[in-house]
């Protein structure tokens, strides 16, 4: 489902809803190469070591759907609409089985990507922003959403340095932005960054400078999380990678 709306048009409705649960939901968002996954793992270890019950989950990891998504990507079969619907299904399955139950049980849930990933990626691919949000209208509002803001060029340099292959959909090759993978990647990631920058304003993200070193970023994350932990109970720790 494509849209005639401008990519920088603000959404009209269907933001995540605040649902009273005893747990805490922490979300980390950003471009690939921003360092958010590393920071999520470090935060998991930090909180676990201090006796908090913590549950970790990441994007596109549902046992029900992830295999279908991988096959579709491998064969380059996903249109923007099917891409959006499959990832929404993946998220819905994980939300019902691996996000909401721990929150209700009083855990701190760390999400390496949340609904905002879909808001950015799907809209950058031309999907209607209000339609995309309607797919995730059941989601709850995070207690803290971190956005690791990084220049597209820096993210690309990190991938090259790590010898990570740029994938077809990651580069936006399905959109016909360029026949050159690197050029397409830079253009598509720039579209994603524009969406994330807009979301940072409308959704109240805690914005961190992802150009700094890992230790500095982690200190900033911990500092922002500490106020949420005041009076939060420490019990037996559960470590679970979804």
Report on this model:
With 242 residues, the protein is an alpha/beta fold. The chain has a single domain (24-229), classed as Rossmann fold (3-Layer(aba) Sandwich). Helices cover 45% and strands 11% of the residues. The protein has eight helices and five strands. The protein has a five-stranded parallel sheet with strand order 2-3-1-4-5, with helices on both faces. The relative contact order is 0.23.
What topology emerges from the helices and strands here?
Layout: E1 24-30, H1 36-49, E2 54-58, H2 66-74, H3 80-104, E3 108-112, H4 115-124, H5 129-135, E4 144-149, H6 152-161, H7 181-202, E5 206-209, H8 214-225
Parallel strand pairs: 1-3, 1-4, 2-3, 4-5
Helix pairs in contact: 1-8, 4-7
